[in-house]
């Protein structure tokens, strides 16, 4: 608990996490409101559609998670931290857990705000959180953000440079995973096993929904179910974090 308290003080003593929280919620809810307003005329707003812009907020939260680590490396405060608490695995785990919980809570709040805003604007649609799929659409964003933050902290630990780590966590889900599908013959099969594709499938998979079709950008069906997708994404995130902790424990701070 002491390590968690220390990491909480360090995290919230700077302005960047506060700005990231505001921007993440603002982008998510703002774009959802804009899209719901246009889609309301056609009466095509569904529960899945209300989460159309979750990726905007997710990217901001991943940047926040990266900066929580790389900023300490940049200013050298990580050395003082490791000298005070020699158990590096415990320190990094506390940091990842705190950032991941914050990311999950913010994403969850943005998801429900997006749903409520869409419900107000989409007067031609009947929106309700009835059924497991609807709850997975909305509440599942918190779990995705939690695991994505763990993955981002791992990237920050491994690269230690803010610019490099931020570039990786933004370019990979937004560009690389989409370009993989262009590889002849095997591109679609490889894309199905990309981590953020699996996370996205957890949120929207198995639903004949216009929002899902738009967000999947023509991706072929994946060979696993939604819950298997989040388990796969979680395994990659935790596995990469374990590798990062082992690496940090063996090298100089």
From TrEMBL:
Protein name: ABC-2 type transport system permease protein
Record keywords: Membrane, Transmembrane, Transmembrane helix
Membrane-spanning residues: 18-40, 52-75, 96-118, 138-159, 166-186, 224-248
Presence of the UniProt keyword Protease in the record: no
